[in-house]
Amino acid sequence: MSTTRQTSQRIVYLNGDYVPEPEATVHVSDRGFIYGDAVFDTARTFNGKIFRLQDHVDRLMRSLRYLRIDPGLTAKQIVDISGEVLDRNRHLLGADEDYWVFQRITRGPAFAEPVDGESSATVIVLCIPLPLAVRAPLFRDGIEVVIPTTRRIAPDALSPNAKTNNYLNLIVAGQETEKIARGSWPILLDYRGFLCEGSGSNIFLVRDGMVMTPQEQYVLPGISRKVVIELCGKLDIPCRETDLTHFDMTTADEAFITSTSICMCPVKSFNGELTADTTIPGPITKKLMDAYCEEIGFDYIAQYMAHMPADGSKGGMGL
Ligand code: PLP
Description:
Low-confidence stretches: none
CATH architecture of the largest domain: Alpha-Beta Barrel
CATH topology of the largest domain: D-amino Acid Aminotransferase, Chain A, domain 2
Structural class: alpha+beta
Bound molecules: pyridoxal-5'-phosphate
């Protein structure tokens, strides 16, 4: 735990220093900014403790290796910095709130002479409160999924296994789906036309007791996706990673989305068509959501429900 004086501003780690968020500035020619030449990862806290931080940092290191960016730090140092950033900001969390904890690493400034053996990377670690109120209605109503015409970038163009700053593909898809249904979440098809992933989420279908999700080579291997696959194993629920078609989507009994912030959240509809089981959550989704709470030792569903807006508003992404 840090002994530093507590401030009313969030503290950010930037290239070796812990500074107030408004003072954390990067070079105007930073390659992350001008080219999206960067990677990031996003963990979350439950009751103020970071969940599976090592898994997130391991994925970050793989993303860095894929882009051949030298962060100038070890995985252990990034884990320690993430813990320190959280410690320096924990006092700013409101009751029953939690943080996203982001690690962001760019290749550093462009047009600069590289110094042999030295990393020029820009390293940022910061935390931001989760948008619990915006997403709370999704746990009451289920997520409306819309499939955009924009396809997910093919793995042989840019691997979706790496969490890079190139989110334009997902952002354009999200703008398309937001026009179709406000507050909906996009799930893109892959370049072959099979269900793929969303902008920050993985998709699961449930049919005849079988849980199914797209194959890892076409998606970001989500940490929450991995938790669900593990839980299916523990609960003896058959789970398959496979190509999923439009037929699979329209004949699914239940569906749910996984993502660090929402863990698991039920899907209400695909392109306006309700899933066969209209209970939110459906029975297998509920069983897995309960097991998820047990796994993390925290009732994340109750946390979202406690932030439900009083005006009955519809949920969204809050990004
Ligand atoms: N797919 C993409 C493209 C993502 O950006 C994310 C998360 O940020 C996910 C899937 C879900 O991954 P996780 O469960 O680790 O949050």
